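Dock S-adenosyl-L-homocysteine; give full complex structure.
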Amino acid sequence: MLFTITTTHQPATDLGFLLHKHPARCQSFKLAFGAQAHVFYPVAEPNMCTAALQISVDPVGMVRNRRGPRGERGTLDHYVNDRPYVASSFSSVAIAQVYSSALNGKCRDMEGLVATPLPLEATISVVPSRGGEGLLRELFEPLGYELLLQRHPLDEQFPEWGESPYYTVTLRATTQLQKLLAHVYVLIPVLDNEKHYWVGQDEVEKLLRFGEGWLADHPAKAAISRRYLKYQGSLARQALERLVVEERLSAADEDSPTEDPREEATEKTLSLNEQRHGAVLAVLESVGAQRVLDLGCGEGRLLRALVKNRQFTEIVGVDVSHRVLELAAARLRLERMSPMQRERITLLHGSLTYRDQRLAGFDAATIVEVIEHLDPPRLAAFERVVFEFTRPNVAIVTTPNSEYNVRWETLPAGSMRHRDHRFEWTRAEFQSWARGVAERFGYTVRFLPVGPDDAEVGSPTQMGLFEVLSEAQK
Ligand code: SAH
């Protein structure tokens, strides 16, 4: 499969900066299953530049390595299939790997260019579309592309055999490169019927992450989610629900937890989760909070502890993931609570990066192991939502202390504790962030270790306790 991107933006060779690939070089990359990707520039002139990504796969290796319940196939399929030639979900994996910075909107040298709409033309050959030209138009035209389609006959020498479902697709638009890559990343697997790996929860996250800012408004969002998630009904429903929330909030969001056995396992040895909730509870008790928000409540472990304590008269759990709220409702046995108990607790579906009137006026808010799930560019929105609009008297924020990771034998060096973590901070990093927030929004902040406090690297969890400044203190 060949994926070319051409721009006439001047100087056109800036494309090399955006893609983090030097126009004068040909670079090769190893992909999974023995496949390879090559990036080169057939044209690199000041007024026109084309980057080409060519992916060659080993069809046998790829089919043989297929996993998952639907993985079994006839033997002939191992040797005769269209995988080497068509753009498939594998191409998306390659794009994510080879053009990772550009896909994530990062460009060290030319940040302004990332945000600039450029005249772009992308050609993908070839794309399978069993839904024909109609499907291709339905997917790409609402995104503002002019579409040029060339359908290939089944066999050039035997025109009477008719047309194949394969197209060379050219997309033209003036748009940001990052957007174009995200569109292609999501829509190629939508067009392809096959998927080389098993679809799981993290595919929902990827769909939403790379669909951010456009998928919620796409008229075919339901079909896109269904096909991207390979007709896994429950995943597709989950993705759609979250897209609908996003649409309602009129922008994009992301995030939901993935049950990562690694995090569970690493932390179980210390029962750190319990220690964390114990510490949070102790602080809430000591400050005399009665009306409490648990922001990013997840499956409701902390909520369950809060419900047991009569000091807390109103408890509200908020999470962006509908699925974990369902788990929380089950864990709390909301259904079977007495009416009096039931009145004390509310679960709300919402995102911490959008202002929400329902959250104003509480004594305290806990934000336990949540911030590290936010994309760094969304942190500023989160800060305003929590500290400016929600504005609890007390806010308790916990996050991993990355210095402590070296003490975990099961954690490979340099890796984070959870695959959905966008960052993990050292104590200095967390404290500098927290002090900045406190200063900007009129809070004091102090820090408490949670878990065994190692002389050298500190405790596994770090807690920031924010208290709103009184008028006299200001
Ligand atoms: N506080 C819980 C769960 C931590 S996991 C506990 O201590 O066990 C992080 C949680 O934050 C997940 O449930 C995830 O869905 C939620 N989350 C991530 N981004 C969010 C956002 N923008 N708004 C609300 N919740 C979010």
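Observed: Residues 2-197 form a domain with the c-terminal autoproteolytic domain of nucleoporin nup98 fold (CATH 3.30.1610.20).
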